[in-house]
Amino acid sequence: MDRLSFGRLTEVMSEHPILVTGATGKSGRRVVGQLRARGLPVRAAARGGEHIFDWTDSGTWDAALEGVRAAYIVQLDGTKLVRPFVERAVRHGVRRIVLASGRGIDNPDYAKDSGGVLEGILDSEAAVRESGLEWTISRPGWFAQNFSEGFFADAVRAGELRLPAGDGAASFVDAEDIAAVVVAALTEDQHAGRIYELSGPRAVTPTEAVATISEASGRAIRYVPLSVEGYVAELVRQGLSPADAEAFADVIEPLREGTDAYVSDGVQRALGRPPRSFAEFAKSTAEAGGWRV
Predict the structure, then answer these.
(1) Per residue in 149-177, pLDDT tens?
(2) pLDDT tens digits, 212-249
(3) Is-contact 96 70, C-beta < 8 A?
């Protein structure tokens, strides 16, 4: 995009808030921060926070969409609510949508879908592509931030990560990079009609991940590989239902099988630079006190 056209678009965007759903989540709050750092108005929408938005309460949708020209949609897994929301967005005059999706959704062998979310995600992507709006789809893999503020964070802080992941690996992507791609797609013209698969620059095993975090944080952390059966039994002893425990074990399957180890070029294509490494993520998180007990 040339400097003049970017200036015109920024002027248009500065007159209308950019809607960010899931604004308190890992990617959403970073998108909000990066947009505001550019001086752009943001409607930060979530069930709790600045602007109340609830996917399961369509009565909150119109207020979220009023006056909006661009929106980042973080869908509610296991539902088909994006399609009616996009239809309403069209009626409100929204021009551009960026959808948060995920890697592997078009690969039937990627992972088990015991949670029943795949059908909804596929419908969401189809709804966006069929909307007639300018659309971009973000398909990130495993978030590096799962180790600092998500799935694995408590175990890492406790010093022992116990997972049925074997020696598998994943090309963990930094949520800061995810947000940067989303912000670019929301504010620049050249991303319309593109699907960006996002990953880090190389695959990292759990052993390598905790060793990198240990070095960055100065804390001793170890990885203990478990069998799937042993992991499910531990979760049940901790109070989860057998069905929920099995679902958590299924989530780990792509890591265990290495199906998320491949490297995608989405960050490079969208931003013109390589993605941040896991070591860079660990260093910046440790410096911010991310693993203090």
Answers:
(1) 988 999 999 999 999 999 999 999 999 99
(2) 999 999 999 999 999 999 999 999 999 999 999 998 99
(3) yes
C-alpha 151/C-alpha 168 separation (Å) is 17
* Rounded distance between C-alpha atoms, residue 17 and residue 35, angstroms: 10
Can you list the pairs that 128-133 forms with residues at least 24 positions away whose Cβ atoms lie under 8 Å?
128/73, 128/82, 128/86, 128/97, 128/99, 131/86, 131/87, 131/89, 131/90, 131/97, 132/90, 133/86, 133/89, 133/90, 133/94, 133/95, 133/96, 133/97
Find the domain containing 103 and state its range. Answer: 3-141+174-199+262-275
Tell whether the model's pLDDT for residue 182 goes beyond 50. Answer: yes
Q: Token pair of 73, please?
A: 């949609």
Say which residues have a Cβ less than 8 Å from residue 6's Cβ, sequence separation at least 6.
187, 188
The alpha carbon dihedral of 160, 147, 151, 276 has a sign of negative
Of 128, 48, 130, 142, the C-alpha closest to 85 is 128
How far apart (Å, rounded) are the C-alpha atoms in residues 142 and 145? 9
Would you tell me how many other CB atoms lie within 10 Å of the CB of residue 22? 23
83, part of any domain: yes
Rounded (to 5) percent helix, strand, coil in the chain:
45, 15, 40
Cβ partners under 8 Å of residue 198, min gap 6: 103, 138, 139, 140, 141, 173, 177, 178, 181, 264, 266, 267, 275
Give the CATH number, domain containing residue 178. Answer: 3.40.50.720
| Residue 145 pLDDT grade (very low, low, confident, very high; cuts 50, 70, 90) | very high
Whether residue 12 has pLDDT greater than 60: no
Q: Tell me, yes or no, whether 161 lies in a domain.
A: no
CB 122 within 8 A of CB 105: yes
